[in-house]
Predict the structure.
Amino acid sequence: MTKYLIIGAGAAGVSAAEAIRSQDPDGEITQICEENAGYYSRPGLAYYLTGEISEDTLFPVGQSYFERLRVHLFHSQARKIIPAEHSVILHNGNTLAYHKLLIATGARASLAKVPGLELEGVVKMDSIEDVKRIMKHAHRRRTAVVVGGGITALELVEGFRARGLKVFYFLRGDRYWSNVLDETESHIVEHRLKEEGIELQYQTELAEILGNKGKVIGVKTTDGKQIKCDIVGIAIGIQPKKALADEAGLKTERGISVNEYLNTTDTDIFAAGDVAEVYDPTIGKPILDSLWAPARRQGYTAGLNMSGRRNIYIKGVPFNVTRLAGLTTTIIGALGGREVDADVVGIVRGDSEGWRQMPEAIVTQSRFDVNRLRILVGEDKLVGALLMGDQTLSRALHHFIVDQVDISPIRQKLVGQADHISNVLADYWSKIVASPMRENYATIQP
């Protein structure tokens, strides 16, 4: 009987257990869960912080689910992997043996290298316990400072504001999330934040967190400015938790290096999720892919391969649905942070009735006061897209980009009529949906 050991009980770890059990009904699956809370939805933490959902909503499955999978769940911490002995030493000194091991330890929030991090009132949003700590602190505080330029920082900003705090938001650059959003999109987000009473501090960096009697009383910036506050949220990035792999002698770079089967440099050890560096065919090198859906896909693929399959993991087209200052925003494909071909054309537009009313579409919300669509068009394919507000075209654009649909019949219309691109795309998508031979996209004429 094969012994499977999984370190981590997040999206990748749980998906791996599901995959293993689907292939091996008799194998022994043991899972090490560092958090007492068990398996929960990390993307839901932001909505828990704002009070939009209850704590119970964060848990997609309970203990009974692991019992049905016949997974032995250990609430402990792995201290050391000994590959030569096929064993893992736990924090309490106990040893677990394995035939196949998965490292799915995830990542932790990076902390700014400034004095004062140890003070009470300095918070991050790594876990459900972190959010509970924030809620406890926020109940007794009045003013917050948030540092960071991405989604998690914005979630902290909105979470603090929802709990009645005055919020100062530090941005290192001259606008929000400049490596993904264009100038107009950044300004849309910033304007909405300002309308909520949030004070944005541009080109501002944290130099020191000030304290008194062990508690936060303010911050000092690199240009010498001081702001009084009693809670500081830090969200400047994440770091894969790869110390176990480093000590075990596995190859690591930013994360744990894996091949196309999610094998590490030890044939009996796999890695998946935020801790793994997977090959990205778009840019031709390994990257960290710290999103929930890819973590689940990686975990499932690793689980299949641990149980004897040889499934290749192919990183999919980047796809992220998030909320920015109350606006549902979908980001698909190459929009920022990676190189695109020189002949790619960027096109943007605002609102349109055709976009909102397109048939056969999934609409996430019914009405918005801001609607924006931006697409990147290659020679005959869509390369990337961003929808901000109305999500009616999200299904179609995801299909166009992921399936590499030939858009040459409508390319000139897209490039030449930017004010009507949503209608052009909607009409073309309707013809694809109605076509009896949907695979022959190039034969469909606009």
In short: The mean pLDDT is 89. The first strand starts at residue 3 and ends at 7.
